[in-house]
Amino acid sequence: MRNWLKEAREAKGYTMAYVGEQIGITEAYYSLIERGERQKKMDITLVVKLAEIFGMTLEEVANLEKGE
Known about the structure:
This protein is mainly α.
């Protein structure tokens, strides 16, 4: 589970459907990403989009993904 991703989404008050729509995927697929079942190693385009949506730097997202 990517707790950092869930926490970032909830801190902004976003739904999974909203985030999925913003990055061009379905709510169901976004849910799988958040649960860690898909995109186990996120591709850079996804990292960039998530950073933009949550107001983070690429470095912040990368560090959270690494568990730092």
